[in-house]
Amino acid sequence: MQSFGEVQSMASNIFSAYASVAASMMLFRSLAHDVIPEPLKSYIISAFTRIFSYFFAPLSTQITMVVDENTGMTRNQIYESAEIYLHTKINPNTKRFKVSKNPKKKSISLSMEKDEVVTDTYNNIELTWQFVLEVPENSKNSFQSEKRYFELSFDKQHRETVLNEYLHFIMQKAKELREKDRNVKLYTRDCPYSDSDDDDGGRNVSGVWGSVNLDHPVTFEKLAMNPQLKEQIIDDLDRFVRRKEYYKKVGKAWKRGYLLYGPPGTGKSSLIAAMANYLKFDIYDLELTSLYSNAELKRTLLSTANRSIIVIEDIDCNAPMLNRDVEPEPSDNKLTLSGLLNFMDGLWSNCGDERIIIFTTNHKEKIDPALLRPGRMDMHIHMSYCTPAGFDVLALNYLAIHDHPRLFPEIKDLIQEVQVTPAEIAEHLMRNENAEPALEGVVDLLKRKKAEANEENINKKAKAGIEVKGEAKKEAKMEKIVKSLKSFRKNSRRGKSKRM
Ligand SMILES: Nc1ncnc2c1ncn2[C@@H]1O[C@H](COP(=O)(O)OP(=O)(O)OP(=O)(O)O)[C@@H](O)[C@H]1O
Ligand SMILES: [Mg+2]
C-alpha cells in the first residue's frame, strides 16, 4: 500500500507534469504561430491540441467555455463584450495583435490575433482567453464561412462565479468602454443629413432629427467659472445618473432640469457641451419656434433617445411664441415652458430614462415666474462675467501658462473692476501664440473697458444732474403757479366782499 505522502507526491508529480505540458502547449502554439507556414498552421495546431486534450484532459481541473461570435443569426453579446474588454488586457508581452481605427470612433482599437492568448484575473481567479479563427479548408476565400470564437479557460471550481459574475462584469466593462469611445452627437430638427453610426437601440430618428458629431472639445476643466459652482454641477450630474432606482421608487420621471442664465459670452452653451461630454449624452437642440402643434412636439420628443440632453436656448426669445395658441383649437391649449415641463414629465414617466432638459436665457428677469418656482427647474446656474480664478483657467487653456509675474496681477486687479466676459478674454488670448503679447492685449482690452465704464458713469451722473436741475426748475415753476393762484383767489374773494 502506498502511504498518503506517496500518493500526495505522485499527484503533485502528475500535476506538475500537467502544468509543464500545459505551459509547453502554450509555448508550442506561440512557436507554431511564428514558425509554421500558413497553409499547414491551423491543421498542425488543431491536431496537436487534440492529442494534448486526449492524454491530459482527464487530469485537468480546467474547464473551457466556448464563446461563439454568433448565436444563430444574431451576434453573441458575450463575444462582442469580450472583444471590447480584451482590448484592455493586451499588454506589452502580447506578441501579436491587431490594430484598427473606425472613423466614427475616437481611439485606435487593439484586438487579438488568431490563436493569441491573454490572461485575466477576477477575484483571484486566473482566466485564460484564446481567440480562435477557423478557416474551413474548402472555402478559404469566403469571409462568411470563417468561424470566430473565444475559448475561456479557468479552474472548474469557479464555474458558478464565472457564469454568474465574471461574464456580467465583462459585459458591464465593455458597455463603459463603448460609451467612453463614443462620439457625442448634436441633433437638430433641420439638419439636412445624419451621420448616425448607430448603436442607439433601434431608435427611429428618421425625418425628425438629423445629427452631426458634437466635436466640441470643451470639458469642465476648461470652463472658466466659479470653482464651487462647477463642483456642485458635477456632483449634481453624478447623483442624477446614479439614482435610477431612487427615481423609480418615488415614482418620478428620471429627469433633471437646469436653467442657465447670464450675459452673452459667459459660457452657457459651452457648459452644455461640457455636460454632454462629461456624461456622454447626446444633445437635442430644440427650436420651439419651429413647432406648430402639440402633436408635432410630442412626436419630436418621442423620437429623442434616452441618456440625452434636450436644450432650449434663449427662452426669453421663445416666450412670445410660447404664449400664443400652439393649436388653434381648443383655444385653451396654450404651451408655456412650465406646461412643456409637465408634458415632458408625463411623457417620460412611462418611457424615458436619464433625460436632462436645459433652458438658457440672457435675461432671467424676463422669463415667466412660473418657471422659476421651486421644483420646475432643479438648478438655476448663473454664468457670470470673468473672475480672477476664471482668468487662470483661460490662460492655462489658451497659452498653457500658470502665471506671469507682472501681467497676471495687473489683469486680475482690472478684472475685478470691469465687466468682461470669458468669451472676450478668450478671443484676445487667441490673438497671439506668445504669452506676453497676448496678455498685453488682454490688459489693453480691460483698460479700454474700464475707461468706457468710467465715461459711461460720468455721462450717467451728468444726465442725472440735468434731470435734477430740470426737476428743480419744474418745482419752482409749480410753486410760482400755486402762489399766483392763491393770490388770484384772495383778490377775487376781496372783490366779492366789496361788491356785497
Ligand atoms: N466660461 C467660459 N469658459 C471658457 N470659455 C468660455 C467661457 N465662456 C465663453 N467662452 C468662450 O467663448 C465662446 C462663446 O461662449 P458661449 O457660446 O458658451 O457663450 P454663451 O453664454 O452661450 O453666449 P450666448 O448667450 O450668446 O449664447 C466659447 O466658444 C468659448 O470659447
Ligand atoms: Mg449660447
Automatic annotation (TrEMBL):
The keyword ATP-binding applies. Pfam families: AAA (PF00004), AAA_assoc (PF14363), AAA_lid_At3g28540 (PF25568). SUPFAM superfamilies: P-loop containing nucleoside triphosphate hydrolases (SSF52540). PROSITE patterns: AAA (PS00674). Residues 254-387 form the AAA+ ATPase domain. The keyword Hydrolase applies. It comes from the Eukaryota. It catalyses: ATP + H2O = ADP + phosphate + H(+). Keywords: ATP-binding, Hydrolase, Magnesium, Nucleotide-binding. InterPro entries: AAA+_ATPase, AAA_N_dom, At3g28540-like_C, ATPase_AAA_core, ATPase_AAA_CS, Mitochondrial_chaperone_BCS1, P-loop_NTPase. Its cofactor is Mg(2+). Belongs to the AAA ATPase family. BCS1 subfamily. This is AAA-ATPase At2g18193-like. It comes from Olea europaea subsp. europaea.
